[in-house]
Every structure is written in C-alpha cells, then in structure tokens.
Amino acid sequence: xxxxxxxxxxxxxxxxxxxxxxxxxxxxxxxxxxxxxxxxxxxxxxxxxxxxxxxxxxxxxxxxxxxxxxxxxxxxxxxxxxxxxxxxxxxxxxxxxxxxxxxxxxxxxxxxxxxxxxxxxxxxxxxxxxxxxxxxxxxxxxxxxxxxxxxxxxxxxxxxxxxxxxx
Amino acid sequence: xxxxxxxxxxxxxxxxxxxxxxxxxxxxxxxxxxxxxxxxxxxxxxxxxxxxxxxxxxxxxxxxxxxxxxxxxxxxxxxxxxxxxxxxxxxxxxxxxxxxxxxxxxxxxxxxxxxxxxxxxxxxxxxxxxxxxxxxxxxxxxxxxxxxxxxxxxxxxxxxxxxxxxxxxxxxxxxxxxxxxxxxxxxxxxxxxxxxxxxxxxxxxxxxxxxxxxxxxxxxxxxxxxxxxxxxxxxxxxxxxxxxxxxxxxxxxxxxxxxxxxxxxxxxxxxxxxxxxxxxxxxxxxxxxxxx
Lengths: 167, 292
Description:
The termini of chain A are far apart. Chain A has two domains: 78 residues, Ubiquitin-like (UB roll) (Roll), CATH 3.10.20.30; 75 residues, [2Fe-2S]-binding domain (DNA polymerase, domain 1), CATH 1.10.150.120. In chain A, 34% of the residues lie in helices and 15% in strands. By secondary structure, chain B is α+β, with helices and mostly antiparallel strands.
C-alpha cells in the first residue's frame, strides 16, 4: 500500500490542502477531488489539449502533471479564469462566432488562447491567423474545423492590439 | 488510461536523487518535466515502483557561458530554450529546433535533460547535440563524467546512461563567426513528429567548408550523422555542385526502414530534399527554389 502524500497548492485563488495518491494526475485531482469539471480529459497523453490549465500562469496539460508535483504552486482552471473575467472577451467572441459545437475542447482552447493573447497590447501588430493556428496546434477540436475558433481569437486579438483611437 | 500505482519522492539535490535511486528496491525513474514519462505511465508502457522528482533541484537549472562553451542545465524547459538570449547568441540551432518541438503547453514543462535522456530518435535536440559536438554531463555515484554526444547515443531509446545515473547538463561549443548552423524539419502538421529533421553545422575557411557536421532525426534508431555527405562538402565551397554531391552521398549514410507512416524510399527522398534545403539556406548565394 502506497501512502497518500500531502499537497498544498492554490487553486483559482483559494488555498487547498489535501492528501493524494502519488499516481493521481492533476487533471483527476481537479475534477474528482475539487469538482472543477471544466478540466476535460480526452487522451490523457498530452495530445488533445482538453485538460490544459494554467500552472503558475503558464498553460500545461493537467493530464501530464501529478497532483503531488504541484505542491506550493498556483493552478488556474477555466472556472477561475471565468470568475475573474479574464476570459470574458474570448467567451463573448466564441459565443458570437459560434466557435464551439460540442464544447469538449473549449476550456483548453480558452486557456491556451488567453495565454497567447498576453502578447497583444495596444499598438502591437495583431498576430496572423497562422500564428493563432500555431498557438492552437496542441488543441484538438473534432467539430468545428477550427475556422470559427481562429476567427473568434483573431477578433479579440485585433481588438486588444488596436490603439485607443482606432478602438 | 491511468498509471499503475507508484511511490513518489521529491528530492532537492543530485546527491539525494542518486541515493534515492540506489535505495529503491524496485524500479525507479527520475521525473523531470514528465512530458514523455507521464504519457508512458498513463499508457502503462512503463510501470515503475518509485518516481524521484528532480524538478526542483536548483543546480540542474540555468544557462551560462563557461569558458568556450554554453552550459545548459538539464532542467531547462523547451520554452526557455526557445526564448533564451544566451542560446540565440551562442547556439541558435537550438532556438530553431525548439520551435518544432511539440506544442506550446508541452514546451512549458518538457526539459532539455529529459529529451536527451529519453533519446527518442525522432526528437530534435539529440540531433542538434551531435551536430553541435556537444558534451553530455552525467552525474553518478562515482562522480561526474562527460561524454561526447557522438558517443552518447547507443540505439533506439538507449544511451550510455547507466541505471541510476542522472544527466545533469550539456555543454555546447560557442558559435563562432566562421560557423553557420541551421535546423529544419519536414512534418505533416505543426508539432507532429518529424518525418525527417536535420541539424547542420558547417565550419568555413573563407568560402570553403572546412568541416561539416550533419545529424538527422527520424531516419534511424539514433540521431544519425551523415559522414559521406559531410565528406562531400569538406574542402569545397557551398554551392549547387557540392550540395548535389552531398545529396548523392547521402545514400551511403542513411538506410531508413519502411514503417506504417512512410516508406523507406519516401523518407530517404525527404532526407535529400531537406539536406538540399538546409544547405542552400546556409549558402551565401541567393536561395534556389528546391528541386526535388
């Protein structure tokens, strides 16, 4: 019998302290122990991107991280990013452009897109569609063919890069 | 799938890591970025009894110039390799290669040492290390040893690392004005495994190639040097004739197998196309459209 180990971390701004089995992935920990079901599990090998969350501010696959590894770290799931309205503009653009169908991949894509858009500030050149596709290369969507997703992200990127006058 | 149960121990020094490995009664694995190890565990391709988390060992971090080499710590993330000003200045081929490695979220966790310890023949960094003439620094119970990249890779996913040894850093000779280097690859989609990749490192004397180091990935069990093509370039200026000679010589260097993804002939063809493309880009003259 392998003993559970303590883990202390910050999830969506709240301190969390649990004992976890070492083999428990961060994704299963977030879903099952904390009920954060925006973290979707598709492939569990880092290919589909549905489980991507921010770890200390950087997008990572929650299926390729052990819960026990995250001791002392900060995790933000789509729930937290949604509550803080960090992804509000993206959510609005995804809604307006119908950039989802079944929605399974959407949380991972929103987390990745949010990180990608950090580079977009007023006066910067808006990223190309190719750059957006490159940023999304680790996210599978089986419904949309990506066009609407790229459209929605492009719209937010252009708005973020627009100067005050143009906006 | 879910991983088989294992125990976990986080260590904070190389000494502690080596002791944890030595003290494990079953199978132990070092865990760094985990971007290849955790998929293998989730697929139950591997099922160790103990994971030793080396991810917080400070001495395995950092990128610094030491004498005539750039020392890159084992825990350097691919995202850092992609953005490090020191790497761009002194080993730009690694910056180019990192852009091809997996996807952004994987690059945020995957590490230099992990990639080199795994020695996936389709991986970019092992080929770069052979092209650069890097030295691999290995910590073990008897102390640290240094192994030339050409001697480090043994076979498919096999290196000279003995059980319990820990890859601690790589040392890469600093770029010089007489050296031109480039990495490129051909893959079906961005971030996919390369169908073929090439790390090329040419030292010039004036317009003449003095020495060439060419290392391919995804064409054999290890990153593959191409000695015949290298010889075809040495002592000649880099131009259409020497490039054609190198492409022709490649048949003596590489003998890829047929596999489910690609026939041996197609892979060989792509290797020649890529060699032409990379060498043309390294040449002084105007870049030619690639004639496959």
